[in-house]
């Protein structure tokens, strides 16, 4: 069984000597009109931030950074869960794959018990 490398979504056996050089990088953001820097709707992220009674002001830059951090988090946990699905010879993610990823990666320890 291959060990999952935290945060990378790849097992140590798959990583090889190239490390991160072998993984495709997302295209750099362009300044073309209509190009989106965030995949999450910033208005929804702002609404979530404003729903917190402890937050009084949230600048547009802070909203963007929170949206980008959420995107990276979802991408990371999805990749790790997909590795768990591949170990089970499946391509479709299931809840148990998320549970296995949460148990296997120390960075996700704060999520233990949240999907119950």
Automatic annotation (TrEMBL):
What are the GO cellular component annotations? epsilon DNA polymerase complex
Which GO annotations describe the biological process of this protein?
DNA-templated DNA replication
Q: Domain Transcription factor CBF/NF-Y/archaeal histone, which positions?
A: 39-102
Q: Which CDD domains match?
A: HFD_POLE4-like
Q: Which InterPro entries match?
A: CBFA_NFYB_domain, Histone-fold, Transcr_DNA_Rep_Reg
Q: Which Gene3D superfamilies does UniProt cross-reference here?
A: Histone, subunit A
Report the subcellular localization. Nucleus
Alphabetically ordered keywords of this record: DNA-binding, Nucleus
Q: Which residues form a coiled coil?
A: none
Q: Which GO terms of the molecular function aspect are on file?
A: DNA binding; protein heterodimerization activity
Identify the stretch(es) annotated as Disordered: 1-36
Could you tell me what this protein does?
A: Accessory component of the DNA polymerase epsilon complex. Participates in DNA repair and in chromosomal DNA replication.
What interactions and quaternary structure are annotated?
A: Component of the DNA polymerase epsilon complex consisting of four subunits: the catalytic subunit POLE and the accessory subunits POLE2, POLE3 and POLE4. Interaction with POLE3 is a prerequisite for further binding with POLE and POLE2.
The name this protein goes by in its record: DNA polymerase epsilon subunit 4
What is the scientific name of the source organism? Moschus moschiferus (Siberian musk deer)
